[in-house]
Amino acid sequence: MRSLLCLITALASVSGLAQVPVRDNWLWLSAELQKELAKDLVIAINAETRLNENYRNVRSYFGEVEVSYKLNKYFSGSIQYRYGGRENDVSDFVRGQRITGYLYGRFKIRKFSFANRLGYFQQYLKLDAGDDRINPETYWRNRFQAKYKMSKAIEPLMSIEFFYRTFDDRNRIDEWRYALGLEIELNKQHTLKPVFLLSRQVNVRRPDIRNILSVGYVYSIPLKKRNQNSKS
Fold it and tell me: What's the rounded Cα separation, in Å, for the pair 116 and 168?
């Protein structure tokens, strides 16, 4: 009887562990610089920090460089490189880098615009400060986004995104993200993007559920205008 009670207790513990999610409030802050290098070729440099534990703890920080090229009216592609640190425990950050390739598809219907972003990334994490080994992770990610041109300066948006892991024998979707937000064009150079995201892990023992407030700022370097009054 005692063995049976121990077994029931263990099963209940495992069941509870599998069902009880971990909830937290996050804050993502980012600043981005954009520059058109040539026609249809754009470079973007981004710096971002992410806070968790109800906005009190720095969970990660990183910088990104992305070069994108517009293929035609409907399709574009880009390559992105990320380098930064992520908290491993309360006293240690692991270094990591990520390389991502994106393919974008876009189309418009009157004041509505729709975009799908398909990405494949490989991420390398150095798990221990005294260890040269790295832990590679590969994912497919896909985000569908819809925007509405409310006015010249304001566009409400909504999106849904999933992450599909491919780096071990448990190939599966392990995270969904749902977003609602705004794109606010302050002027031709300055854009503000406040977004609320609900991120939920799936197919894991203790899923993370994150309420994320993301605030992004983008500065676009203006193109130099040719002096039409100058003589050749």
Answer: 26
